[in-house]
Amino acid sequence: MEVNAVLDLMWIVVCGILVFFMQAGFTLVEVGFTRAKNTGNIIMKNLMDLAIGSLGFWLIGYTIMYGEDVGSFIGVPEFFYSVRDDMHNLFFQTVFCATAATIVSGAIAERTKFSTYLIFSLIITTVIYPISGHWVWQGDGWLTSLGFIDFAGSTVVHSVGGWAALVAATLVGPRIGKYVDGKSTAIPGHNMLYGALGVFILWLGWFGFNPGSELAISGDSANNVAGIVITTNLAAAAGAATSLFLTWMKYGRADISMTLNGALAGLVGITAGCAAVSPGGAAIIGVISGIVVVFSIEFIDQVLKIDDPVGAISVHGVVGAVGTLCVGLFATDGGLFYGGGFGQLGVQAIGVVAIGAWAMITAFIVLFILKKTLGLRVTEKEELEGLDMHEHGIDSYPEFGSNLDK
Amino acid sequence: MKKIEAIIRKSKFDAVKKALHETDVNFFSYWDVTGVGNEKRGRVYRGVSYSTTDIQRRMISVVVSDEFLERTIQVILEAAHTGSVGDGKVFVSTVEEAYRIRTKESGGDSLI
């Protein structure tokens, strides 16, 4: 094998490993922002959507996404993909797919039936995510033909997970005690350190997510990769700083969990345009993401009254959409602010709406059927006493006294 | 024999412990308690403001023979004092009997 090809392959594998580790970040954020009595359940959801996603994407998902194009809509499915010189791509795309699946977990934490969640994970990784992904990343998809830009997946990965999460959180309903007399109440998470560690790990993993999506590092790609590392980092930094100052002004305190969400928002926001914008553009996208995420979390929680314990809908769905639109504004080649007119922005909007609608409609169909058959929610007693005890038969912190809420 | 139960500020625990040791009260138990009072603390979590009346304090429980009673109380009153609202309370009650399990001693001898 030629040296440059080896370098490129190695880069894809290394970045895939980094993205894989983002699962740990998602687990920690979700555990930290929720109550101790559901820790084990969250661990199991995040572990198993990775496991089920890996199996499902290999089973059929990968070829639905990257198989030979049919009508610009879907790939020709083939079972058990095993083309030997393409295994690096299967791995890299598998961990992306698992990311989309795991986003849903956070929004429905602390009240959702484990068995139902596993089934939904299988469907999102084998059907929902691969089909809309095909439209953008396979090469012959209809959004690719329009010129839609979503370099690393603000929309393809994050919005798909975020919009599915919106549907799921709506159908499953709020946690007991979240809305009292129609007013939102605070249910503080049990460990800010876990939340913070999770964000650090996600931020680190994003250096695989975005720079890895260059899918090469040899030759001219080297400088592209370095540029993407910088746009990614600047947007995350700007997102965190913006959320910090915004919440500091609004609440009078430097809010920890919102600032953590701000960093993630910056990362999600830049994912679509990380290769298309300048470092300055990336910083501005980070600022926009940091503002949007705070107002979106408050709006969804207090006005729409949809209970999303970790802010997944806002961070991944809303900011993913905004970040994708920002490519139409800030792309140095074709962006509105660089004299490119409204063309790219219009295409971006079509992609955001089409994939948003796809994710919401398909998620609704699947979850509605699951709700009417298996049920989405645990019983009231199970929810009050904690999913750890009832779904898994163990207390995640046995040395710290029982978490049973009787 | 008397039991002294004192609810004190956690921040004053080390001072109270040191003062008790200095007055030769070497054995006592303590645990963290949550109480409810008039005070309300406003907080914001993820944009939702809420208030809590929960107050975190530490409780010390010490059983002393009668001759130790007065100085133990004085030491706690002194060491746990800041002068601000919320310094805590001291309760004294009578204990009928005490035993040391190892030696089967009873009464005041079992306390030291």
From TrEMBL, chain A:
Subcellular location: Cell membrane; Membrane
Membrane-crossing segments per the record: 6-29, 50-67, 87-109, 116-137, 149-172, 192-209, 225-246, 258-278, 284-300, 312-330, 350-370
Keywords, sorted A to Z: Ammonia transport, Membrane, Transmembrane, Transmembrane helix, Transport
InterPro entries found in the cross-reference section: Ammonium/urea_transptr, Ammonium_transpt, NH4_transpt_AmtB-like_dom
UniProt keyword Iron, yes or no: no
Membrane topology of this protein: Multi-pass membrane protein
Top-level lineage group: Bacteria
Primary localization: membrane
Gene3D superfamilies per UniProt: Ammonium transporter AmtB like domains
Keyword Ribosomal protein: no
Native organism taxonomy: Bacteria, Pseudomonadati, Bacteroidota, Flavobacteriia, Flavobacteriales
Listed name of the protein: Ammonium transporter
Domain Ammonium transporter AmtB-like: 10-395
Species the sequence originates in: Autumnicola tepida
Similarity annotation: Belongs to the ammonia transporter channel (TC 1.A.11.2) family.
PANTHER family assigned to the protein according to its UniProt record, in alphabetical order: AMMONIUM TRANSPORTER, AMMONIUM TRANSPORTER SLL0108-RELATED
From TrEMBL, chain B:
Superkingdom per UniProt: Bacteria
InterPro entries: N-reg_PII, N-reg_PII-like_a/b, N-reg_PII/ATP_PRibTrfase_C, N-reg_PII_CS
Name of one Pfam family that matches: P-II
SUPFAM superfamilies reported for this sequence: GlnB-like
Residue ranges the record marks as coiled coil: none
Family of the protein in this entry: Belongs to the P(II) protein family.
UniProt name for this protein: P-II family nitrogen regulator
Naturally occurring in which organism (per UniProt): Autumnicola tepida
